[in-house]
């Protein structure tokens, strides 16, 4: 039991602890080799792996599954993943860190179709890289990713049933995969004895491409001195001696991806000794692909949020909202007539002040609403423009109303109406008499007699007058 624990204790240490107990109780202790031979004889290899290395290790004793790509055309299935590179780079935000790269790879030909680099693995990184792929090559039939938050964001997977993340609601906006009818699939996750999940890297061929590309990119001559090593035990002596520029990193990634696709002698099922570029060029030219118009493809660059038009014709979005601060407001005259209506607001997350595109529930475009920027409290020019806009709106409404309303004709029509006549009063079917009850204590129905004290006081008053 001591030796068969997940911590994997050394057999010699376990034997010494057992020897201490045997000495105390006077037991005879066989040699260590005898214990090991008996354990291997009575327990299977799978049971020993489960006991000493965990639940995931025993699952890896099953032979790997070989999957064929026969019958799959280019762009039928693509897979994507992100990786944090082990180099220190001056990031666009001004800070220093390790950049992230997201890549999309074709399953059939194993060619890297598009990639984007960023500071973090975000939904924007996934969305923009997918936009590059679709505008250049076409719409894929299926995407295979792991359950990362970036790829499973609602901007991407809204309306999908097999998302495995986030709660879905009936009012959820359709994501890019739903709008473009792309089948979204998530790789399986293995769970260890502690309930912790672990993804299967072997499920996505792009993971194997990263093994090759990461070594080329991170140890490139332009990255010399910026390489950090994969772990603390793998750090070179030149660790952190310099920080590479962002432009150099992008240039290195671009060169390495081009070389990766053009390298000959590939031993995959489709390549058979050719390069990934050669396989792609031969098979893509014989494939029917779905293409988007430039305006349709532009939607991929826009994130979406549901919003409700307020009484002044403004919509708000949560993107760009700071802690305790209201979100940006966007307004257009057309939205005034849609006050209280729920709409879909599409915007560029990188430029929230350039305005938003507003769509109705059916996906029909309504208008482009510019952003209402805050102004200074004492800004007289801004106040003047605001007042002029209010007056202009009032005049426009009055002119529109005057074109449809003729008050003189309305008054003349009212005067030509015949005088109003009231209908005859209806008569009741019968009339009942009303009986007034007598005062309390007086059964004769006559007025009650004056009180004695009052009469006595009246007599005294009369006597004084005489």
Secondary structure layout plus pairing:
Layout: H1 11-25, H2 32-42, H3 45-53, H4 55-59, E1 77-84, E2 89-90, E3 96-97, E4 100-106, E5 112-118, H5 123-136, E6 142-145, H6 154-157, H7 176-179, E7 183-186, E8 189-191, E9 197-199, H8 205-218, H9 246-262, H10 276-284, H11 294-298, E10 303-308, E11 314-316, E12 329-331, E13 342-347, E14 356-359, E15 365-369, H12 380-404, H13 407-415, H14 452-465
Describe the structure.
It is a single chain. This protein has 466 residues and is an alpha+beta fold. Among the domains are: 49 residues, no CATH class; 208 residues, Nucleotidyltransferase, domain 5 (2-Layer Sandwich); 68 residues, SH3 type barrels. The chain has 14 helices and 15 strands. It has a 5-stranded mixed sheet with strand order 5-4-1-6-7, with helices on both faces. Strand 14 and strand 15 form a beta hairpin. The radius of gyration is 42 Å and the shape is extended. About 1% of the residues have low confidence.
């Amino acid at each position: 039991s001591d030796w068969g624990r997940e911590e994997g204790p050394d057999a010699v240490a376990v034997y010494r602890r057992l020897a201490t107990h045997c000495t105390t109780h006077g037991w005879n202790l066989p040699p260590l080799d005898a214990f090991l031979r008996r354990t291997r004889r009575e327990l299977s290899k799978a049971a020993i792996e489960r006991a000493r290395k965990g639940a995931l290790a025993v699952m890896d004793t099953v032979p790997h599954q070989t999957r064929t790509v026969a019958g799959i055309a280019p762009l039928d299935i693509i897979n994507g993943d992100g990786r944090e590179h082990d180099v220190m780079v001056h990031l666009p935000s001004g800070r220093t860190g390790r950049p992230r790269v997201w890549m999309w790879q074709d399953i059939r030909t194993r060619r890297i179709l598009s990639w984007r680099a960023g500071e973090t693995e975000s939904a924007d990184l996934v969305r923009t890289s997918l936009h590059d792929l679709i505008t250049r090559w076409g719409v894929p039939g299926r995407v295979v990713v792991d359950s990362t938050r970036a790829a499973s964001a609602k901007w991407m997977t809204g309306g999908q049933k097999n998302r495995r993340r986030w709660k879905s609601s009936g009012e959820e906006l359709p994501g890019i995969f739903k709008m473009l009818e792309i089948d979204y699939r998530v790789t399986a996750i293995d769970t260890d004895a502690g309930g912790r999940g672990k993804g299967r890297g072997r499920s996505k061929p792009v993971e194997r491409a990263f093994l090759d590309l990461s070594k080329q990119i991170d140890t490139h001559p332009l990255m010399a001195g910026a390489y950090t090593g994969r772990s603390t035990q793998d750090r070179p002596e030149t660790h952190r001696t310099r920080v590479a520029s962002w432009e150099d990193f992008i240039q290195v990634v671009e060169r390495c991806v081009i070389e990766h696709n053009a390298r000959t002698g590939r031993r995959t099922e489709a390549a058979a000794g050719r390069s990934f570029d050669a396989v792609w060029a031969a098979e893509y030219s014989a494939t029917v692909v779905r293409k988007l118009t430039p305006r349709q493809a532009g939607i991929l660059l826009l994130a979406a949020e549901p919003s409700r038009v307020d009484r002044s014709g403004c919509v708000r979005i949560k993107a760009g909202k700071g802690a305790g601060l209201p979100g940006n407001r966007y307004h257009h005259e057309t939205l005034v007539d849609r006050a209280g209506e729920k709409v879909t607001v599409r915007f560029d997350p990188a430029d929230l002040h350039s305005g938003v595109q507003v769509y109705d529930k059916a996906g029909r475009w309504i208008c482009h609403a510019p952003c209402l920027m805050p102004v200074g409290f004492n800004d007289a020019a801004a106040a003047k423009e605001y007042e002029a806009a209010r007056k202009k709106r009032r005049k426009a409404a009055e002119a529109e109303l005057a074109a449809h309303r003729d008050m003189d004709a309305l008054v003349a029509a009212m005067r030509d109406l015949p005088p109003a006549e009231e209908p005859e009063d209806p008569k009741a079917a019968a009339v009942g008499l009303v009986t007034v009850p007598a005062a309390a204590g007086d059964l004769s129905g006559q007025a009650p007699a004056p009180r004695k004290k009052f009469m006595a006081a009246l007599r005294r008053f009369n006597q004084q007058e005489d």
